[in-house]
Amino acid sequence: MHMLDRDRDRIIVDSTVQMAHALRLQVVAEGVETREHAVALAAAGYDYAQGYFYSPALAADACRDWMNDFNMGSVTPLSAARRAG
Asked: pLDDT tens across 14-59, in order?
């Protein structure tokens, strides 16, 4: 999707989160690769995000270390992108 430069794609992104929230569901954006996408998805109201922007695929030990860093506040969650936008 080219949500940053195509209105039609942005409308799909926006309406998806609106529909999910109307159904009282939380929404996860997958495949977030850039800060710009993270900020746009946060602004659209997505609750969570995952993707290479946050971390590449990790082995189990590295994943455990990443999660510890996240819990210590040194990894930026989607909420931080929302504040930055």
From this structure: 999 999 999 999 999 999 999 999 999 988 999 988 888 888 888 9
Domain count, the chain: 1
Start-to-end C-alpha separation, the chain = 20
Could you tell me if residue 1 is inside a domain?
no
Is the residue at 2 inside a domain? no
Question: Is residue 75 a contact partner of residue 69, using CB atoms and an 8 Å limit?
Answer: yes
The Cα 9–Cα 78 span in angstroms is 20
3-state DSSP of 6-63: CHHHHHHHHHHHHHHHHCCCCCEECCCCCHHHHHHHHHHCCCEECCCCCCCCCCHHHH
Instruction: Assess if residue 57 is contained within a domain.
Output: yes
Domain of residue 49: give its range.
Answer: 7-84
Q: Check if the beta carbon of residue 45 is closer than 8 Å to that of residue 61.
A: no
